[in-house]
């Protein structure tokens, strides 16, 4: 359970006013002293993430947030961070303190959650502290409430049952590659080992793809790009699918037989974590770029840039070469994301392996609403290498828009 990547867990966020008992509720759900609990309002500042498992859902990520009624300049920043959590929330718990009642804070937050089509459970906390008019609170909020006491544990098991019932069945795509192959198929994976490769291990998309292949009762064979030809010649049976790192598309494509489907890890993750159709549409915007245009390169994680970093060096080099001049690049890394995208002619996003599907879809929606095309690394590299149509062979419906 602890080895399940954060981005592949169901994200359950807990919202409410200060001292509504959000942190106490997390401790009750996890049966651990995870969140700091205090009578002082505003104890929780930045969102706090805790991995746990709720059967039969499986691995989850519980998110504790600052109170939506925080005050002052710092309080406004905390509220902003709290609202940003909605962008990665699959299931929301709205915690009510009977002593505080229902206010515009709860009503506005409920509306924000509903508008994003996030599954929502109302939680009436602190029921051990006196008689509560639950029906009146439900009527004011327009939401049924699960009565619990974080202190005594009363109602916690029933709340877990409600979480299981309301958890979205498909908070991420079912497969990375499993629906493209059959049991017994061979998948050949091309994985460069260069300066950017982490020492002693493979990167997350490669590991997850291998696992999905094995779960599908197929065979995964992993080679470096300079061993590809020997691997193809040594196989008695042709591979069903060849998956490559996008950075070596240019080397791998000429060596791949025409009757073997070719794609990349990044293109697979464009579908797994986001909207492949929208990201492929973004490829058409590259043809309209002109020197001097503003381009945003967005990475969902922070890492030390290597000498030939894909986001800082390779992609700018490819795009400048394609447009025949210098573009004006901007970079944005980590969990944050700029909301005002109108200044850009194109958003180039990483493979999104470190964020969940809802968060990536939110980023795509922001670009779409701003009228800005968005593309991901793998789709872009296939396009500039002139092989995007070939790399979309496993996805004929998406390929058709080209």
TrEMBL record:
Coiled coil: none annotated. The keyword Secreted does not apply. Residues 176-274 form the Hydrogen maturase F dimerization domain. It comes from the Bacteria. Residues 11-126 form the G domain. One of its GO terms (molecular function) is GTP binding. Residues 279-394 form the Hydrogen maturase F tetramerization domain. One of its GO terms (biological process) is tRNA wobble uridine modification. InterPro entries: FeFe-hyd_GTPase_HydF, GTP-bd, HydF_dimer, HydF_tetramer, P-loop_NTPase, Small_GTP-bd. Transmembrane segments: none annotated. GO terms for cellular component: cytoplasm. Keywords: GTP-binding, Nucleotide-binding. Pfam families: HydF_dimer, HydF_tetramer, MMR_HSR1. This is Small GTP-binding protein domain. It comes from Syntrophomonas wolfei subsp. wolfei (strain DSM 2245B / Goettingen).
């Amino acid at each position: 359970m602890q080895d399940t990547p954060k981005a592949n867990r169901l994200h359950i966020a807990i919202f409410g006013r200060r001292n509504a008992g959000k942190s106490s509720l997390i401790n009750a759900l996890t049966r651990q002293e995870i969140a700091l609990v205090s009578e002082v309002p505003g104890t929780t500042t930045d969102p706090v993430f805790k991995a746990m498992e709720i059967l039969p859902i499986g691995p989850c990520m519980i998110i504790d947030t600052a109170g939506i009624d925080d005050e002052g300049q710092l309080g406004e920043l905390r509220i902003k961070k709290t609202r940003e959590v909605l962008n990665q929330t699959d299931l929301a718990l709205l915690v009510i303190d009977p002593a505080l009642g229902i206010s515009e804070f709860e009503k506005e937050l409920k509306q924000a959650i509903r508008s994003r089509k996030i599954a929502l459970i109302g939680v009436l906390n602190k029921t051990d502290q006196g008689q509560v008019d639950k029906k009146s609170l439900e009527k004011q909020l327009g939401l049924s409430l699960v009565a619990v006491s974080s202190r005594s544990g009363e109602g916690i098991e029933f709340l877990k049952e409600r979480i299981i019932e309301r958890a979205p069945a498909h908070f991420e795509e079912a497969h990375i590659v499993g629906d493209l192959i059959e049991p017994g198929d061979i998948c050949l994976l091309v994985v460069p080992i260069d300066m950017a490769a982490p020492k002693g291990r493979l990167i997350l998309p490669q590991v997850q793809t291998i696992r999905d292949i094995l779960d599908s009762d197929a065979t995964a064979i992993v080679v470096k790009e300079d061993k590809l030809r020997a691997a193809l010649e040594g196989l008695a049976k042709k591979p069903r699918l060849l998956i490559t790192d996008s950075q070596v598309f240019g080397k791998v494509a000429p060596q791949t037989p025409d009757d073997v489907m070719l794609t990349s890890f990044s293109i697979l993750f464009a579908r797994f974590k986001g909207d492949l159709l929208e990201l492929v549409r973004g490829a058409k915007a590259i043809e309209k770029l002109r020197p001097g245009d503003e381009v945003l390169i967005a990475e969902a994680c922070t890492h030390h840039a290597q000498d030939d970093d894909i986001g800082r060096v390779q992609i700018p080099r490819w795009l400048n070469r394609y447009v025949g001049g210098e573009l004006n690049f901007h970079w944005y890394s980590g969990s944050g994301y700029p909301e005002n995208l109108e200044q850009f002619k194109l958003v180039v996003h990483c493979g999104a392996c470190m964020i969940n599907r809802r968060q990536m879809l939110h980023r795509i929606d922001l670009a779409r609403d701003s009228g800005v095309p968005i593309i991901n690394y793998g789709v872009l590299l296939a396009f500039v290498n002139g092989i995007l149509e070939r790399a979309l062979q496993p996805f004929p419906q998406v390929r058709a828009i080209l």
